[in-house]
Specification:
Shape: globular
Number of helices: 2
Structural class: alpha/beta
Number of strands: 5
Strand order of the largest sheet: 3-2-4-1-5
Helix content: 10-25%
Largest sheet: 5 strands, mixed
Radius of gyration: 14 Å
């Protein structure tokens, strides 16, 4: 087993609690589905949001998944770079897997597809 990173990002329409939590939930669901993950595979998750999203901690959405309440989570605000994609949530999951780097499915949803079109399969 190796520890690999799985990237994901999405955008939401508004700085509202429901949008942030729903966006995070949909992103994690897609990452889980595309990589056949369960909570026991995950060693930690880093979550970042752009500075314009402060209505909720996205980690709340992840903790609500069955079995994910013990996975270490960390929320942070991204560096406010001029021209950055607004209202963006990013996840970096550290997972134990037998997959090679090229077998990992990174997930980019909504406007976040623009961030890494080379990795965006969703």
């Amino acid at each position: 087993m190796l520890n690999r990173g799985i990237r994901g990002a999405t955008t939401v329409l508004a700085n509202e609690e429901a949008d942030i939590l729903n966006g995070t939930e949909k992103l994690l669901e897609q990452i889980i589905a595309e990589n056949n993950l369960n909570a026991e595979d995950v060693t930690s998750v880093w979550i970042t949001v752009t500075p314009d999203l402060d209505a909720a901690f996205p980690a709340r959405a992840i903790r609500a998944f069955d079995g994910w309440d013990l996975v270490p989570l960390m929320c942070a605000t991204e560096i406010p770079v001029q021209g950055a994609l607004p209202k963006c949530i990013r996840l970096l999951l550290h997972v134990n897997t037998t997959k090679s780097q090229s077998e990992i499915n990174h997930v980019y949803l909504n406007e976040a597809r623009k961030l890494r079109p080379d990795l965006s399969k969703s």
